[in-house]
Amino acid sequence: MPVIADETADETGAGDSGPAAATPGGRSSGGDGADPRSAFPDWRFAPNIGGHPDIYEIENRALDPGGHVLAAMRSLAPWDGRALVDLGCGTGFWLPGYARDASSVIGIEPDPALRRAAARRIHGLPGVQVRPGSAEHLPLADRSVDVVHARFAYFLAPGADAGLAEVLRVLTPGGSLVVVDNDHHWGQFAEILAAASSAPPSSISSAIDAWWRDRGATRRAVRSEWRFETRADLEAVLRIEFPAAVADAWLARNPAAIGLTYGYVLFCVVA
Ligand SMILES: C[S@@+](CC[C@H](N)C(=O)[O-])C[C@H]1O[C@@H](n2cnc3c(N)ncnc32)[C@H](O)[C@@H]1O
Prior knowledge:
With 271 residues, the chain is an alpha/beta fold. Helix content is 36%, strand content 21%. The protein starts with 35 loop residues before the first helix and ends with a strand.
């Protein structure tokens, strides 16, 4: 789940140039009365989910069918009976599942269109809310949350110390942040990541690992897979995640694939 899709392929995708460029059809309205670009200057539009929420839904359904990622997240920071925040919750795919065990769940999302989709998803579910916010601007009291999850959180990465400090502000003493990231070394997904990147995997992952290590994080690698129902679903998802030439080359080399092996890396920081 990288954010390196072909930015020229879709007029709704504003790429990593930031939310100022992400203003197609109504996106400039933040809802909730605020312009999200000024309210959340650290918001970076996600062209995969932001430009293609329906295809990203297919991606989330195909992700980790054995539940290994969730199991690792639980073992790092159990959330049964605890107050949980999903930071950068997108369309809220994971919120109902978290709500089965947590005492309360808050999805935080700066993108107003995604936030509306998340709010629709959790409508009527007790103990679950969706609120506008970003890593650097959390609408939460000091020491009010036990567990913060951030899945594919390119906004919590080397250089994002202000966001990390804000997350630590809202965590209770002993509370945990768990970040789900991509493994740049293991699995077929890592091969595609490498093909799409100008930097070698070792330099990317060593910078990420060092940043988290310096902030006291525990690192946990999880080997899993994407498993789709159809080849068409795999093709659609690869084409929102990678430049067309990279996706098409991998698909041509793997003509029978309806899934791929996928390595994840989790980082956990305890407040
Ligand atoms: C790759 S998507 C993942 C969405 C969701 N976590 C999931 O796994 O379904 C990244 C999400 O982070 C959000 N985002 C971007 N910048 C952010 C920031 N500074 N703080 C919090 N979320 C941010 C995007 O709008 C998007 O919803």
